[in-house]
Amino acid sequence: MSGSLSRRLEPDMTRHNTISRDQCEDAPRGKAQRQPFSFGRFLKTLGPGLITGASDDDPSGIGTYSQAGAQFGYGIGWTMLVTFPLMSAIQEICARVGRVTGRGISGNVSRHYPPWILIAVVALLAIANTVNIAADLSAMADATRLLVGGPAILYVVLFGVASVAAQIFMNYKRYVAVLKWLTLSLFAYVAALAFARVSWHEALAGVLVPHISWSADYLTTIVAILGTTISPYLFFWQASQEADEQRVDVTKHPLIVQHYGAQREFSRIRADTITGMAFSNLIALSIIVTAAASLHATGKTDIQTSAQAAEALRPIAGPWAEVIFALGIVGTGLLAIPVLAGATAYAVGEGRRWRVGLTRRPRRAVAFYSVLALSGGLGIVLNFTPIDPISALYWSAVVNGVLAVPVMVLLMLMARREDVMGRFAVRGLLYWLGWLSTGAMALSVIAMGIMQFL
């Protein structure tokens, strides 16, 4: 990594030409020079933010949202409205750290904080991600068994191996394109609403009027929802992906090295992140509303997994609702497992200062890809042990919520440090929204702990 960075710092004619073009692009332009808005061009600019937001709705997240809707009905929908600006702010800050420094969160922590902090955070992240992968694989296997029959454990192995192999052996640009297409699978949950008898008046009231129950179950569910919407693995993934993009595009350099074009890049990051988080929350809200209308309304409140939710929809909303729900589980799992395994590999690799990045060939980043494969492999193996990954699923979301607090505090402190971010230290409304997000997560964790104790 240090060798790569030193080569980037060497002046050459290409660098001077690039800076010159950026200077021209950052100069004030007349209206005639501005290109008209193009939806196709806008879609091409979407990348890390869209994939991050879509992967947030993984099978474990679907299980959490289904359980929340089945247990508490429409009244839990307000969480999606509240979490949207909070998750958008924290993810934008993550992306800015990656784009400005050319390193992910772990790479920056390893350079500016004591080693024990890095070890503790990365160890907890790796454990939570591995359990999450195991649970996602199990949910995907159960959903496939609902659709076509056959042994679930076979599907666990096939999905796990395919996800890891694609990350290691596929061309990076082609792989990112596949991930973008997989985001479309999430529209299955919007389609599932068509088969549910939704009371739209109650659903809208549930979104706009917060209803809070001061019980341990309710507060634990709130932390689980926050843990699956504002997840640590998403922080590491998006920051590292922004850094990775600079290895693909030779015209891009860390903004702390080359300042030109910064505002254009920040605008792209904001549009990408807001789009991804809005998409994520829309899908999550669709799942909650579907579960509330189809399961909670009929007294079916004991849903534990996404596959159980799909199966329970058949007698209530019809077989097509079950099929659509199950297909969505498989599609989102194929999107989320690479992000979970990749986030672990980035966190470990950058912390150890290895060569990292999906843009690198396997032989050029053996240690990085080994961690990625190990993370996916352990997720597969957990499905062969007496440990039930589905039973651990709900609590892995809670662990994510608890782990998110120290990671977010670290991130906010790092984003304001000029020795990390230079002239691009995060300030203003975005900075305070980031702290608001951190405070909301901390308060929910404290409230859950108090209620569990009582």
TrEMBL record:
What GO cellular-component annotations does this UniProt entry give?
plasma membrane
The family database entries (InterPro entries) matched by this protein are listed as: NRAMP_fam (IPR001046)
Task: Give the Pfam families listed for this entry.
Answer: Nramp (PF01566)
The listed locations are: Membrane
TM annotation in the entry: 113-134, 146-166, 178-198, 218-237, 274-295, 323-346, 366-387, 393-416, 428-451
For membrane topology, the record states: Multi-pass membrane protein
Q: Name one GO molecular function term.
A: manganese ion transmembrane transporter activity
Q: Share an example GO biological-process annotation for this protein.
A: iron ion transmembrane transport
For this UniProt record, give its keywords in alphabetical order, as a comma-separated list. Answer: Membrane, Symport, Transmembrane, Transmembrane helix, Transport
Name of the molecule in the record: Divalent metal cation transporter MntH
Species: Bradyrhizobium ivorense
Lineage of the organism: Bacteria, Pseudomonadati, Pseudomonadota, Alphaproteobacteria, Hyphomicrobiales
Query: Which gene is annotated as encoding this protein in its UniProt record?
Result: mntH_2
